[in-house]
Amino acid sequence: MDMRLLVIRKLQNKKILNGCLLLGITLFIAIAACTPMFKQGSLNMLIRSKFEKKIETQNVYPAVLSRSAAVEGEGLSYPAVAEKMEDYLKTWKSYMEIPQKDVQKHIWLKGSNIKRQYGTNDDWTAIGCIPDMEEHIKILSGESFDGKTEDNRVYPCVMTEKTMDSIGLVVGEEIEFTGIADEQGNALKLRVVGIFDEKDNVDVFWHVNADEYDRQLFVSEDALREMIEHYSVEEVDYEEYLLLDYKKIYGKNVSDLAYYLQQFHEKDDKFADNFSDLLADYSRDKKFVDTIFWVLELPVFVLLLAFIYMVSSQILDMETGEIAMFGSRGFSQNQIMAVYLWQSGVLAGIGVALGLPLGYVLCKTAASADGFLKFAMKSTAVYRPVAGMVLYALGAAALVVAFLTIPAARYAKASIVEQKRKTDQKDKDSPFEKYFIDVVMLLLSLYLLYNYSRQKPLLTAQVMTGEKLDPMVFLNVSLFLFACGQLGHRLLKYLVRFIYSLGKKKWKPNIYAAFLQIIRSGARQRFLSVFLIFTIAMGIFNANAAGTINENNEQRIRYRVGADVVLSEHWAPQSYMRDFQVIHYYEEPDYQRYAGLQKASVSRMTRVVRDDEVRLSAGGNSLSDCSMLAVQTKEFGETARLQEGLNETHWYYFLNALAKNGSGILISRNTAEKFGLKEGDQMRYTRLNKLASGEEKQEITCTGTVCGIFDAWPGYEQYAYGYNEDGEWEEKQQYMIVVNYAYALNVFGPTPYQIWMDLKPEGTVSEIEDFLSVEEITADSLVSTQKELEETRNSAIVQITNGLFSLSFLVSILLCMVGFLIYWITSMKQRELLFGIYRAMGMSMGEVNRMLFAEQILSSLPAGIFGGAAGILTSLLYTRLLALVYLPGNHNIPLNIYMDGADMGRLMLLVLGMIGICLVILRRQMKGSDMLQAIKLGEDS
Amino acid sequence: MRKEISQAEGVIQNDNLMRTVGIIQEDSLIQTVGIIQEENLIQAEGVVRSFPVPGAEDFRALKGMDITIPRGRLTMLKGRSGSGKTTLLNILSALDLPNEGRVSFEGRIINEMSEGEREELRRYQMGFVFQSVALIPIMSAYENVDFGLRLSGYPENHGERIREVLSLVGLEERMAHLPRQMSGGEQQRVAIARAIAHKPRIIFADEPTGALDTATGLAVVKLFRTLLEKQEVTIVMSTHDPNLMELGDLVYEIEDGEIVGREEHFNPL
Asked: Which residues 4-33 on chain B approach chain A with CB closer than 8 angstroms?
């Protein structure tokens, strides 16, 4: 028979099983194919978010290459300068494959003192030119410089309002540059014809804001050319900026980009860029993303391969006779193998065809995850198909083919007799049980866990510095789950045997048969138990791990910010003269303006002075760069937030103690330990006067009595991580004291404070932003818990985590359901004959149904419950290690394992539902089965 | 005249010979057939069984058959493959129902029984020995017999009875073995032990020697004869092995759904 026809017939013969196998293969290939797309998309999102964050926080265009230099000497000409600038631009572009967004050039003649028509002379001013600037400016007063040069060679120029203020020039005024003259000795003359501003303040052309060109008068390109040619110009300075389209910088470009930037820096000391640090930051995060993918996907792949193995061995078991028949008809071993190679090739081929589009859909679904199993309608445009998908799909398909074909070799080799002996052996105790491999694996996994937990500081440093982690740290979870599955089956058998022995002589025949079915069905039952326990436990672990990471992340953000909103208004330094000395001081902005906020979105607010450069000293020791919070106790207590249970007593007790002692201080536990302080001891704290100059007092010190020692405080993070001076990664302790606001104000005078706000339930941070804009309040910073949480949820890494956890959970549940149903359907088919015998012997249909129900209760239900328990245990034991990747380092809030009962409840309901569906299917199948057909009474008569 | 038989939870308390389910119509019990002048356990009249064939006329497997099964004897159904032996056996054993005709078991009309009543009949009054997969593979010889006993609600000590019947079939030593650990003949003997353990009125055996070699087949039939003597049971078996015919008390020859011959042999118990 034609091989292809034979394969198609074989596949058709076991439609359900091959369908399930195809499902497993398709999912395996789909997840493999989804990986490069998801990873690439995540990295694109990561780099994009970094650029956008830079725009948001630094208000600059985030991807700029620049060069700043001067041309001097003989033969100086404008075309020579322009050509030089163009050459550099060409070189950059030839290496960078990123499209340019814009180019900005700035050429100027070194400033010199000027002789003014109206005002004071000798003000330093430069003459500049920005090619094409005419198209990007608006004239606020006067006209543009595009008018012709006056006959007496007075060049028209424009200036910014800022320059106007700095020098005091007016429109129409003529200026003479006394230091620049033509061959006849005539000084260079310019006339201010207008005042300009940027036409559009979001125009990337103004990457360097016009206001930054202070004391510079702008002329046209032609005018500058003439000046260089006709006047005694000895040096021309220039700056050029190449603005790359950062939206076109994808993850895949980064390493090339970083390499070329480094090369440019090495080869050209005038070269600069503003995003090398961002790329380095990205590269560190990329390693982290690689680790996450590795950690989260590996167990799913293991599970899928286990599923494929389960179904394919089921099929092979059923085809034992067929294989023997091939052998008896003269098929060689190789030919039999070829049949299976063809068969798995066909399945893998279909798997690739289906898996690629499914991988695309899975990736888009995972990318839209907003939380664990929460999918939102949001743009996933950065997640685009990549060529690697095909490569990954083909790789997975090749693995599947090997996985399906190699076990067939075992069957093809064995004769019928050997095969029968193997089948007999299969039902005996597995080596796992016989040699207690399950217990050994469990102990090994626990030992590894213990060992890794001891190495936590090292692992933390590895995570933080982006070093690759030992994969076994995470594979260990799968090992534990697998060992739990095996051990679960052993315990389940003990349990069933125990219950069986309780009423051995009294069990009704159907229950008697059910017990023996569970006890004796060996390999098949074992695989089902292990599979059920593994998938359920993995589902629960995924849910709990995702919950733990998300919840702890959010708790830490709330703790770090300390309140709903923390606003720092910009305080302008002021000065006055006293006794011929300039005294600098801060003028406190009107706090009452914020009263309006309290009517709308803010329920409470308080002023908090925060200084992170305080020096603490006690008992001859001192420590710099410590933090000080000055708080108004009652308001602070009402506004700030602190999770309960972090201190030995409620933090309000500390506030009360501080309220009773005006000069009292609260100190963090590590401060107390560092200085050996206890309550009632004295401590000095010194603040620097940042405005001080000349003979002004550089620092102010005062002494306080320790009236409380806290472990945690709103906004206080005890641990910080970074490289030390030797370039080693280290954990640094942060020290904090809290003092009374009134006392601090009295001692240090008015200094910039933060305004901590507690929002009403309906209040949003955007209302505060609007308020600041209306009131024209300049904020140095505005930190909001709400916004930080949102940003975290939308950050690439959290999204990958939630997406992969959700995907992994859904796959494990799907496999659990399908695997379970396959098991029962095929097991039912294989036992059809047995049911016929039961029925022929007079067992009623109801009794057979009750027998099957009892089998479920005795096998699947305990396996489900054990799986649930294993999932909870795994979560309790292993989540901390997994969370290390996401929440490395120590924190004032210890990591809490978060378990959502609802998630687990839903999972258990699903298992019960599955058992229910099985029973319905079995009942239907039983009704349809022909008892007489089944028992095959004398099939040849 | 009708006589009520008491029954408690499916277990008949009366003496063995009189055990039955429901009501015995004693009038039809006695019939004389040649040398076998004993009562008939089963009587079938005008039994027709046809099976639908898609796109064609129904296939008539039994074409109006009359047959009686005498109590306490070994009745053999002889015929080639497809002759209708198994169909007839299924109908006599209440596994199947005829399209036409009437089958009575100890006077009770099987055709008129509910499915539940037929199940009970099979469970308490009958024993089965099948040609293939006779045993429950997950149960040892002991457990297989025990299962049969539990099913029939056998009131006495199971252990004793199991040992008794297994020793009767010569397998007392192998009672802990699973079916796959035994030969075909041994498996069939366990099946026989299981079929007789609960002391049924009748044993149906469909080609019990079909998968066995001649000597083992002969041993099985000899075992049947021993059972007739020791267990006071009726046995109906189908076979196409001419060597075994002499061991039957009554042999029906079936061909194309009809009885074409009937032989009686004198085999004293």
From this structure: none
Whether chain A has a CB inside 8 Å of the CB on B130: the answer is yes
| Residue B36 per-residue DSSP state | B
Binary contact (A842, B152; C-beta < 8 A)? yes
pTM value? Answer: 0.76
Final residue in a domain of this structure, among A396, A425, A454: A425
Q: What pLDDT was estimated at residue A164?
A: 83
Give the helix/strand (H/E) hosting A3. helix A3-13
Say if A477 falls within a structural domain: no
d(CA A159, CA A177): 16
Output A927-933 pairs: Cβ under 8 A, ≥24 positions apart: A927/A845, A929/A832, A929/A835, A929/A836, A931/A835, A931/A836, A931/A839, A931/A840, A931/B95, A932/A836, A932/B90, A932/B95, A932/B96, A933/A836
Domain containing A543 equals 484-561+784-941
User: Do A658 and A795 have their domain in common?
Assistant: no
**A402 contacts: CB under 8 Å, gap ≥ 6:** none
Could you give the number of structural domains in chain A? Answer: 4
Residue B127 maps to a domain: yes
Q: Residues A141, A165: one domain?
A: yes
Q: Which of residues 85-114 of B touch A (CB under 8 A)?
A: 85-87, 89-90, 95-96
Handedness of CA A83, A88, A93, A98 (dihedral sign): negative
- Residue A833 with chain B: CB contacts under 8 Å: 133
**At A726, is the secondary structure helix, strand, or coil?**
coil
Q: Are residues A16 and A95 in the same domain?
A: no
- Determine the 3-state secondary structure of B7 from DSSP: strand
| Model pLDDT for residues B125-173, shown as the tens digit of each residue | 999 887 765 688 889 999 999 999 999 888 888 999 999 889 888 888 9
Q: Does the residue A440 lie in any domain?
A: no
Number of domains in chain B: 1
Q: How far apart are CA A586 and CA A691, in angstroms?
A: 9
A670 and A751 both lie in a single domain:
yes
Inside any domain, residue B269 = no
Same domain, A768 and A792: no
> Which comes out higher in pLDDT, residue A758 or B35?
A758
Enter the tokens of residue A924: 């239907």
Interface test with chain A among B151, B177, B237, by most A beta carbons within 10 Å: B151
* Predicted pLDDT at B68: 93
Tell me the residue ranges of DSSP E strands in A209-345: 216-218, 235-244, 271-273
A841 contacts B128? CB cut-off 8 A:
yes
Kindly report the CATH number assigned to the domain that includes residue B160. 3.40.50.300
Distance of CA A903 to the CA centre of its chain: 23
φ and ψ at residue A237, rounded to 5 degrees = -100, 150
The first and second tokens of residue A878, run together, are 């292993």
Report the interhelical angle of A437-454 vs A472-502 (nearest 10°).
140
Q: What is the H or E stretch that residue B115 is in?
A: helix B115-120
ipTM: 0.79
Kindly state whether residues A250 and A334 are assigned to the same domain.
Answer: no
Find the domain containing B244 and state its range: 3-264
What is the least distance, in Å, from the CA of A940 to any CA of chain B?
5
* Contact call for A841 and B79, based on CB within 8 A: no
Q: Return d(Cα A311, Cα A315) in angstroms, integer.
A: 6
Structure tokens at B236: 């109906």
- The phi and psi torsions of A104 (rounded to 5 degrees) equal -125, 130
What residues of chain A score a pLDDT lower than 50? Answer: 936-941
d(CA A97, CA A94): 7
The shares of helix, strand and coil residues in chain B, as percent rounded to the nearest 5, are 35, 30, 35
For residue A777, CA distances in Å to A569, A589, A608, B202, B263 come to: 7, 9, 18, 104, 119
Question: Is A520 in contact with B119 (Cβ distance < 8 A)?
Answer: no
